[in-house]
Known about the structure:
Helix content: 25-40%
CATH superfamily of the largest domain: P-loop containing nucleotide triphosphate hydrolases
Amino acid sequence: MVAGLSSEQRLEMRAIRKSFGAQAALDGVSLSVAPGEVHALVGENGAGKSTLMKVLSGAHQPDGGEMTLDGRPYAPADPHEARRRGVGMIYQELSIAPHLTVAENIFLGLEPRRGLLLDCAALRARAADTLRGLGHAGIDVDAAAGTLSISQQQIVEIARSLAMGCRVIVFDEPTSSLAQEDVAQLFKLIDSLAARGLAIIYISHFLEEVRRLSSRLTVLRDGRSVATHRTTEVTDAQIVTEMVGRSVAELYPRTPHRPGEALLAAEIPGRGALTVRRGEVVGLCGLVGAGRTEFLRALFGLDRTAASVRVGAFTLPAGTRVRWLRHVGMVSENRKEEGLALALGIADNVCLPSLRQLGRGGFISPAQRSAHTTRWIEDLGIRCQDPDQPIGRLSGGNQQKAAFARLLEADCDLLLLDEPTRGIDIAAKAKIYQVIDRLVTDPVRPRAVLMVSSYLPELLGVCDRIAVVRRGQLGPLRAVADISSEALMREATLS
């Protein structure tokens, strides 16, 4: 056992250091988790959480520090050795092989054999036993994994870790793509894993999830472990202060909104109609798959529908180009496939809708492009090397902020925001809420915002009016003062 490390902890990471060139991603981070404990890891995007977990999983080799697993030195050379030693990772973006069956995914690399041949009967039986132990015997072990729901695929990933004998399981933002009922089921499963003596590391930007699951939490900031607390002995305000290094007085701005004339008047036959006024934020909520995103896509012209969309005095034809020309912009929930050109730089992504304003005679001024982008990098706190850094190399939260910056650069009057703060840390969320508030309260030209979110506290904190989308149908818009999260959830889940 390494001197100074407690044998009571299942996993200990002590004074871990990791640099990439001259940049220190981890500067003496320490973390421990005991058998049967859920230990939360919180921090801003870029604080070092992902790098620390990559060191734990063997994807990165540390420059210094020491780790033990059940009191023995632990230094995996790669992720395969980490899993073999007992550390499993459940990432936000699942690593399922969609063309393989559930059973084949669970025992990938550990397939039972009879001589040189695969023992298919034993494979299915062991997979079924593993799923039964997780309380999910209803998942068909012969089904192609790609046909399962996201929550079921997540169960398959957890089953794979258990099949490999993992004693430590890391959950990295596991609820980001789950419906509300699936989140509740996941929490029950994590509770049962901890009750079985597994050590759980849980990473989340949602403090209510951290409070629901964890007994202790560790705060990271700028590559350092700032503090470790018992979850019940620390306030949300203290956690946020430690995360950002300063006090965040109000997460949601309290500036009075003064709605004016209607900026957006839209109707989709068979789905409903709504009006959004200058100077207000309108929210759409509902279960995943209820049709919220489809509603925004129809308004922005991404999907062909019979939608009637009027912005100001103009009735907009089909297509997205005319939306940008009329200062209508959208942030997609699927930033990697629809929202960003990952191979291009930050500046190219941010300035795409406004290239004509960045030069003359068809030529773009690199200096203007860089200056315009730098403004939003500083305003939104995008962590990057420079404006030309490939956007695909940024963290997910910083990618999301860059997607939001594009709408600001395009000087949009109407902002269509689909899950605009997904994967963003608390401080960055507060910044985006402040920017939204600044836009809709602009004394010269107040903007309008139509926002989809799965996070009800966000909608209730930011919006002036909210409507529920259920089974593709848009319900009535109601003032936030007249509704509650419980009422919204009841309406969203009515059969």
